Amino acid sequence: MPRTLLRMLPLVATLAVLAGCGDNTGGGSDSEAASSTPTAAAAKLPPKFEQGVKIALVRQLGSGDFFQQWLLGAREQAKALNIDLRISDARNNNDQQATDLQRAIDQKPDAIIVDHGLASTVNPLIDKAVKAGIPVVAFDVETSNKDVVSIQQSDVDAGKAISEEMAKGIGGQGKVGYVYVAGFAPLDRRDSGWKEVKKANPGLQQVAQFGKVSDATANDTQEQANAVITAHPDLKAVLAPYDEFAKGVVLALGQANKTGVKVYGADISTPDIAVMTKADSPWVATIATDPANVGRVAVRAAALKVNGDPVDRDVLIKPSVITQEFLRQNKIATLEQLRAKLPQLDTRDTATADWIPKS
Ligand code: SR1
């Protein structure tokens, strides 16, 4: 594989990282997640699962490609395990997420999955759930509770890998914009990676930091990016390590007819691939896992806890740097095609057991 196309390096390397159900959420296209990992011959479920298990999924956010794909994978895995997945989406309202989490605890489910959330909002309730004997799996939450299974996409290394890709892409020199909102665990962790790379590359000059997380993150970020692009005509790149951020910056650059600025993002989906591979697209690289697979891992980890099976306290899912060049040269237009070209995205062996169907 040509070295400029795709980098999937081990932990020590520098360019890539280390190696239906009573819900109120929306959705995305089922086909993207559904076809990604063929279901193997049905395994025999433990009696508890044969009878039916209830798991509450308490989400801080649900809009955008990443979150929709994540949910499709989670739902698919839940279905394969006869789990009634009860989903709430606080739409970035932290008080609402606290209410949702308290309600979930009151309903005494077999387990709770907390998907994103401000540490100060969710941790007291996570501790309460654990004390009440409810197994908790946390995805993208900064929690110190040792009884919680904590899942993330190796975000410090992810931030470092995409920042290094940017440093290399602009020859280690020049003005860069940075899209970041504090308080979201994955963004905070990626920020640590960026800080490390910034320190190691004194030629990189961060001239602006902006961004907004909302129900319409791309559009809100676009508005802020417009101002940054105007204020810094000699900008060389923008580090936007969340796909909704990256799409917002791409929209702003297009609106301003501005060329010569490279965008480095995070996450991947079929719509993201379309944006990256469009003629003259400034989005040149992203760091990503398969979001549907991450959703599946979260549900499997919860199922293992419900069954009393061992599961690691920290589950790190390894992302890959995926370049525009790789996507174009391999004529990849969909996430499904990317999965076929990039077996590293497969996480079926993470957080599993013999009795768990390979969804
Ligand atoms: C607002 S936090 C957004 C991030 O959460 C997940 O980790 C995704 O990778 C996304 O970039």
Account of the 3D structure:
By secondary structure, this protein is α/β, with parallel strands linked by helices. Helix content is 41%, strand content 18%. The protein is built from 13 helices and 13 strands. It has helices at 30-34, 47-51, 65-80, 94-106, 119-131, 155-169, 185-200, 217-231, 243-255, 270-277, 291-306, 324-329, 335-341, and strands spanning 6-7, 53-59, 83-89, 111-115, 136-139, 149-152, 174-179, 204-210, 235-240, 262-266, 283-288, 314-316, 320-323. The strands form two sheets. The protein has a seven-stranded mixed beta sheet, sandwiched between helices. A six-stranded parallel beta sheet has the order 3-2-4-5-6-12, with helices on both faces. Helix 9 (243-255) links the parallel strand 9 and strand 10 (262-266). Helix 3 (65-80) packs parallel to helix 11 and helix 8 packs across helix 9. The model is unreliable at 1-41 (pLDDT under 50). Bound molecules: 5-S-methyl-5-thio-alpha-D-ribofuranose (SR1). 5-S-methyl-5-thio-alpha-D-ribofuranose (SR1) is lined by residues 66, 140, 153, 184, 186-187, 213, 242, 266-267.
State which percent range the strand residues make up.
Answer: 15-25%
Order of the strands making up the biggest sheet: 1-13-11-10-9-7-8
Residues in helix, % = 40-55%
Shape: globular
Give the H and E element order: EHHEHEHEHEEHEHEHEHEHEHEEHH
- Give the number of helices: 13
Spans with pLDDT under 50 lasting ≥5 residues? 1-41
- Termini separation comes to 29 Å
Describe the sheet with the most strands. 7 strands, mixed
- Structural category: alpha/beta
How many DSSP-defined strands? 13
Round the Cα radius of gyration to an integer and report it.
20 Å
Name the average pLDDT.
Answer: 90
Any ligands, ions or cofactors bound here, and which? 5-S-methyl-5-thio-alpha-D-ribofuranose
